[in-house]
Amino acid sequence: MITTRFAPSPTGYLHIGGLRTALYNYLYARANGGKFLLRIEDTDLKRNSQEATKAIIDAFKWCNLDYDDEILYQSKRFDVYKKYIDILLKEKKAYKCYMSKEELDELRQEQIKNKLRPKYNGKYRDFTGTPPSGIEPVIRIKAPLSGEIYFNDGVKGDVKFDASDILDDFIIARSDGSPTYNFTVVVDDALMGVTDVIRGDDHLSNTPKQIILYEALNFKIPKFYHVAMINGTDGQKLSKRHGATDVMEYKNMGYLSEALLNFLVRLGWSHADDEIFSMDELKKLFNPNHLSKSASTFNQSKLEWLNQHYIKTASFERLKFELKNFGLNLDEVKHSELLINELKERSKTLLEMANMANSILNAPNSYEEKAYAKFINTQSLELLDKFSKILDGDKTAREYEDLTNKFLEQNGLKLKNLAQPLRIAITGSSVSPSIFEMMEIIGSSEVKNRIQNLINKG
Ligand code: GLU
Fold first, then answer.
1. Across the strands, what pairs with 78?
2. Where does the motif 'KMSKS' region lie (predicted)?
């Protein structure tokens, strides 16, 4: 069975690059009736907090990404890691190294002076003497001294590392007994039965070390897929400099999670030339063999385009529910469905939609300066006043349209003479949905009030 996992280190929030990794692993498992597991890499007890873990879980919930089994917390598994360290020591595949920090620094300086790559010199690899007193040893793995570490990466193809060049007897447990990153990853991936690891290619250099550990522990090596990074438009690795990187910030900016997921899946994966994928489709057709080798570019306008698509196709009930997060409660609003339909076409985000809805539902406190200067004058105020006198009782948008056309005809005017001043009276701005629909939404007496407010100001 395909078993994948997402293994974030809780740093305070879920990065959108992390969400993409999670999504790929999730989809691969779901597309194959496999398992998708979540593991929190919280061994750095000083740095990791419960809030940071909660931030990851909240982001998963928002995105509707469900995981199988219980979440695994590395911080609760120190005894498991110790057990495997002891096995390696017993089998002499790992050893205690008593080199002091000073000695190690000296060695490093010497190597740098001689233009060598700084590297542990294997002093305690086959040590049989009496260890120096007063030093708590670290545990090092006996890495191969020569040969190649090879693996076939699902994205990059054949990857080779020269053992003598790249590797070291790297540390698997620190002097306080705590296991190191590569060690815990390998033990957990093996014990969780992970068959496929999809992760960012910033982890590529960890992989040969992990392969050495898999071999030492006689664990089956999973298939690796190292996905190219996401860059900003300037070609640099995506960071806060380029905009929001926290998944939940996208929620707060008014993106629907399906738009963000659709956007992220395409940053590094493709299926023909298709751009729009529902989660149901993705859960059927995602295949990691179509992951891209080259870095992708985070393109904000494409995300907006997708968000607009998902807003347009979302049901009224869904949008009504989502808009509550933006302070818009439509429960008591009479023509809320019409309002939402009018705004769907013109909203890139839910935030924009909520703001526009509020500007229709509530009388303006102020008027946009430029629009006011351009369209409001004695003549237009007189026209509005005259128009307001024919408004009576609530009507449908089409009835308002007929009434307005008749009024304009009788006065020898065109719609453009009335539309902008009326928009400004109703919303305070010259950009809004159709005036007829807006009149239906707020009703005649409210239109009259707002016209009167504008006249009183003028
Ligand atoms: N905890 C690692 C990270 O957050 C991921 C480990 C892995 O995927 O192997 O970058």
1. none
2. 237-241
